[in-house]
Amino acid sequence: MSATGEVKALTPPDIVARKGGTPLVCLTAYTTPMARLVDTTCDIVLVGDSVGMVLHGLPSTLGVTLDMMIMHAQAVSRGVERALMVVDMPFGSYEEGPEQAFRNAARLMAETGCAAVKLEGGESMAGTIQFLVTRGIPVMAHVGLTPQAVNTFGGYKVQGRGNDAERILRDADAVSKAGAFAVVLEKVPEALARTITADVAIPTIGIGASSACDGQILVVDDMLGMFTDFRPKFVKRYAELGEQAQAAIAAYTREVRERRFPGAEHVFGDGPKTIKGGEAA
Ligand code: KIV
Fold first, then answer.
1. Best mutation site among 207, 216, 234 for ligand 1, i.e. most ligand atoms within 8 A of its Cβ?
2. pTM of the predicted protein model
3. What is the per-residue pLDDT for 273?
4. Is 28 touching ligand 1 by the criterion CB < 6 Å?
5. Spatial distance between the Cα atoms of 20 and 70, rounded to a whole number of angstroms
6. Cα separation of 224 and 178, whole Å?
7. Is the CB of 146 within 6 Å of ligand 1?
C-alpha cells in the first residue's frame, strides 16, 4: 500500500531485487478482465505482441502496430493494480535507431501508463536499450528465439544449441550491461539458460528455457487452453477453457434451436415492475 492507501505496483527495481530469489511469475494479458485475473498473483503482466496471433488471428507478430499495442495496453492498465505492466514494442517501431525507439516507447508510456517496455534483440539492440534506460524508459530485453525475427531464423526454432550458445550468451550479457532490468530467454536449451542466469546481473525470465531461470512467462491464452492453433512443447495447459467454451456454445445452440432457451426465469411479464436482486423483473 502507498501513503494514500492505494495498492503500490511493483517497479523495475523491485523486479531486479528478485534476482536469484523466489521465481518471478509473469503472464501476458490483452484485455481488462484478463488483466484483473492475472494481476491477483503475478509479478509482471506483459501486453505481448503475441496479441496479434492470439486475438487478431494474424499469422505472426509482424503485422502488429503501435496503435494496436496502445489500445490493448490501455485496456490492460484498467485491470492492473499491483503487478508491473510491461508493453511490447512491435516490429518496426524501434529497430531504425535509438531516437525512433525513444519516440515510440515514450508514446507507449504516455498513452497507456505502462512503467516499462520490452523489445527483442541482443547485442544489436544494446545501444538502443542504453539510450532508453538513461532517458527514463525501463526496458525488458528478449533474446534467444525472438519471434519478430521468425523469417531470419526460418521458423520458431530452438536457439543457442551447440556453438550457437556463445551468441545468445553475448546477447544476454550485452542487454544486461546496457541497463535492461530483466531479460526474457525464449526457447533455449536448459544448460544455456542456467549459464546465462548465473552470468548476468538481472533476472532471466524463461519461456521454453527451463526452471533454471529467475522467473517464467507464458502466453495466458496458451496456458488456459484458449489458443489452440498450435501448441509449443514449452506450454503446459493448466485448463482447457477452449473446450469448455466450445461445449457451452454447442449447448446454447441446441437450446435455442429446441426453444429451451430462454426459459421462464429469463423472460419479462407485462405486470407491474418489481425489483428482484437489484434488476427490474
Ligand atoms: O509477445 C509475447 O507474448 C511475448 C512473451 C510470450 C515473452 O513476447
1. 207
2. 0.94
3. 66
4. yes
5. 32
6. 35
7. no
- Indicate which residues carry an active-site annotation: 186
Q: Is 161 within 8 Å of 118 (Cβ atoms)?
A: no
Distance, in Å, from the CA atom of 203 to the CA atom of 19, rounded to the nearest integer, reads 5
Q: pLDDT, tens digit, for every residue of 231-261?
A: 899 999 999 999 999 999 999 999 999 999 9
**Residues 6 or more apart in contact with residue 252 via CB below 8 angstroms:** 261
Contacts of residue 88, Cβ cutoff 8 Å, sequence gap at least 6: 46, 47, 48, 49, 64, 69, 117, 118, 119
Compute the mean pLDDT over every residue in the chain, rounded to the nearest whole number: 95
* Nearest CA, atom 5, ligand 1: 48
Alpha-carbon span 161 to 31, nearest angstrom: 36
Please report which helix (H) or strand (E) contains residue 192, including its range.
helix 190-199
Which atom belonging to ligand 1 lies closest to the Cα atom of 147? 8
Give nearest CA residue, ligand 1 atom 3.
48
Q: Is 250 exposed, middle or buried (0-12, 13-18, 19+ CB in 10 A)?
A: exposed
The pairing of beta strand 275-276 with beta strand 279-280: antiparallel
